[in-house]
């Protein structure tokens, strides 16, 4: 494409920016981003400092492909999400698949309908999904065009469906890779590109999960080898557009287990947060037996501008306000919110002590509820002296920044427990996984169905759990209280700092490593671990399935002698520094009450401790 760019005033832009802009505009296949970059260039030419700064940022590097794939603001430039960047990513992924499959002998695999292929090894099979954000459908089609032109088999989902549907399809269709075009709960200006590997490329417990090292580096190397978009062939047709069968198979798998008969008596409020999860969530809940179902109309339809929320993330303050208002009007039993691509699930319950009468459970609270339900389904009721787990017993897993309560639940049921690095790319590939979660509202309740977090299947599990609680004469808050009486009270809270300058995060992490706080909430810090060196997790009494080591990551782990644990790390997807606070308050024997005074007192103490620890953490990070 012709550049249409004239000379720029000396000094308005560095020469390297001018050179990169000219090369980009000549190669960009998208007229819209060409026009956008050209307008910025001409504004810089006229002396606009904001335009010059914007161009410099857009071309200061290349949007990096990593274990999270790609994610960033949409726009022209090598450091943005756009068609050129996506086409390079698709070409690099396809080249990687071709090389990986050529390295060894593979069977023919299976057709999308499950029938074995005949003859020689089939080409790489890639299933592609997308959400309703700006450019998502275009990026998905570009990916299909690149895969097809390279000789691969591209299977394109027919419409905007949740990320868990794509993750399910990777294994269901025996695909060697999956691509999901989504930025999940990021701001409206962003988009992203997630990659899963399976089929013949990954055949162990990570089959169908998101990529981890060294796959990311291998794919990134192939992406970097592409010099210009003009060198990447793109087919005009030839890929397969899948029908509704995949979506129906996903829903059938989620609802294959018998539902609790009390689900039909629940009044449930849902919100899709302007994303693509609404119809799938509704279908799953109805199939599970929910009959009194209400959704927030203003947030029901996909809208890439997310007009009713500042951030389309159920964790953010105010994001669930419309759902709470509807729940109050209807006297609902539970509120369930999924994020825009429906891989996360937030649960809220009536609580007279909460402002407005409704409280969103923390991710750790919901994780404990679902983990206890999963453990009970495997072993029956917990035992006071559960035997040590067998070497091949099922595993409950969570990230190292999630609450330690899941380990206590595993102990109570004689199951193994594993903590992993943050992200479901790690949790979902744990061998023998029965349940996994992370505190950021991600839950894997059916790893045999979706090897990733799945807000829809979590919602189905929640309504069944609530129906059982009501049959037992309590509710979800009562179940949490009962767990506290058995395991002690675990309470957690986040400290999150959003920054404009990413250098501040690196400086803060260096400061924490060299001068960690001596006390947290008035208690002496007794253990400091630089997670860049990895984390050794002991098993002194043989009750968690053996000692193991968590691989290195960017973070600092702090412990006190009285049950406090803090992990500080940079966010992997947003310009944030995050601290994860976790406290344990022993309770001992207490009367069995729906909401006992002993538990209430313990929660009050935990809240005070978390507030004090949070203040110390904020002082330590200095942001």
Q: What is the gist of this entry?
A:
By secondary structure, the chain is of the alpha/beta class. Helix 1 (15-27) packs antiparallel against helix 2 (31-45) and helix 2 (31-45) packs across helix 3 (49-58).
Description:
The protein is of the alpha/beta class and 623 residues long. The chain is built from 17 helices and 24 strands. The strands form five sheets. Strands 1, 2, 3, 4, 5, 6 and 7 form a seven-stranded mixed sheet that branches. The longest helix is centred in the C-terminal third of the chain and has 25 residues, at 597-621. It is globular and about 75 Å long. It starts with 14 loop residues before the first helix and ends with a helix.
Features:
single chain, 623 residues, 17 helices, seven-stranded mixed beta sheet, six-stranded antiparallel beta sheet, 24 strands, alpha/beta
- The value of Rg in angstroms is 25 Å
- Termini Cα gap: 45 Å
The percentage of residues in β strands lies in 15-25%
Separate helix tally: 17
| Sheet/helix structural class | alpha/beta
């Amino acid at each position: 494409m012709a550049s249409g760019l004239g000379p720029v005033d000396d000094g308005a832009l560095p020469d390297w920016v001018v050179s990169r802009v000219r090369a980009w505009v000549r190669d960009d296949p998208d007229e819209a981003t060409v026009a956008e970059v050209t307008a910025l260039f001409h504004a810089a030419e006229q002396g606009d400092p904001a335009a010059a700064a914007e161009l410099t940022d857009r071309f200061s590097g290349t949007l990096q492909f990593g274990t999270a794939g790609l994610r960033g603001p949409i726009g022209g430039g090598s450091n943005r999400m756009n068609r050129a960047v996506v086409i390079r990513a698709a070409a690099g992924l396809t080249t990687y698949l071709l090389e990986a499959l050529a390295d060894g002998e593979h069977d023919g695999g299976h057709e999308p309908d499950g029938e074995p292929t005949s003859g020689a090894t089939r080409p790489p099979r890639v299933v592609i999904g997308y959400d309703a954000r700006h450019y998502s459908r275009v990026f998905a089609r570009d990916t299909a065009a690149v895969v097809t032109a390279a000789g691969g088999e591209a299977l394109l989902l027919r419409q905007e469906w949740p990320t868990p549907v794509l993750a399910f399809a990777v294994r269901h269709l025996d695909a060697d890779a999956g691509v999901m075009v989504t930025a999940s709960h990021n701001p409206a200006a962003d988009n992203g590109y997630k990659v899963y590997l399976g089929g013949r490329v990954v055949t162990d417990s990570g089959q169908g999960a998101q990529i981890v090292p060294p796959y990311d580096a291998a794919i990134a190397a192939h992406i970097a080898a592409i010099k210009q978009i003009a060198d990447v062939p793109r087919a005009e047709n030839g890929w397969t557009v899948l029908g509704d069968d995949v979506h129906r198979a996903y829903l059938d798998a989620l609802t294959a287990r018998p539902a609790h008969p009390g689900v039909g008596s629940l009044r449930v409020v849902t919100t899709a947060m302007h994303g693509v999860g609404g119809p799938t969530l509704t279908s799953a809940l109805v199939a599970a037996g929910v009959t009194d179902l209400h959704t927030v109309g203003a947030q029901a339809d996909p809208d890439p501008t997310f007009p009713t929320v500042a951030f389309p993330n159920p964790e953010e303050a105010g994001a669930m306000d419309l759902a709470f208002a509807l729940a109050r009007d209807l006297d609902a039993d539970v509120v369930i919110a999924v994020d825009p691509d429906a891989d996360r699930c937030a649960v809220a319950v009536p609580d007279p002590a909460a402002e407005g009468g409704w409280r969103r459970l923390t991710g750790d609270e919901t994780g404990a509820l679902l983990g206890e339900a999963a453990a009970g389904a495997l072993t029956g009721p917990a035992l006071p002296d559960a035997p040590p787990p067998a070497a091949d017993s099922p595993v409950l897993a969570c990230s190292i920044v999630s609450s330690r309560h899941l380990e206590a639940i595993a102990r109570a049921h004689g199951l193994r427990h594993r903590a992993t690095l943050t992200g479901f790319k790690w949790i979902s590939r744990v061998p023998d996984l029965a349940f996994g979660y992370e505190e950021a509202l991600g839950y894997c309740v059916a790893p045999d169905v979706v090897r990733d977090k799945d807000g829809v299947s979590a919602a189905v599990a929640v309504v069944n759990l609530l129906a059982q609680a009501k049959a037992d004469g309590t509710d979800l808050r009562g179940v949490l209280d009962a767990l506290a009486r058995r395991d002690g009270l675990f309470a957690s809270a986040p400290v999150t700092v959003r920054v404009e300058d990413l250098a501040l995060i690196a400086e803060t992490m260096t400061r924490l490593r060299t001068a960690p706080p001596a006390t947290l909430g008035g208690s002496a810090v007794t253990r400091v671990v630089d997670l860049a060196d990895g984390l050794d997790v002991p098993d002194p009494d043989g009750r968690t399935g053996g000692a193991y080591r968590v691989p290195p990551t960017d973070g600092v782990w702090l412990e006190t002698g009285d049950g406090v644990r803090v992990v500080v790390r940079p966010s992997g997807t947003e310009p944030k520094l995050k601290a994860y606070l976790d406290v344990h308050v022993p309770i001992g024997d207490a009367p069995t009450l729906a909401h006992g005074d002993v538990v209430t007192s313990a929660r009050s103490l935990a809240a005070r401790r978390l507030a004090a620890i949070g203040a110390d953490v904020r002082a330590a990070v200095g942001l």
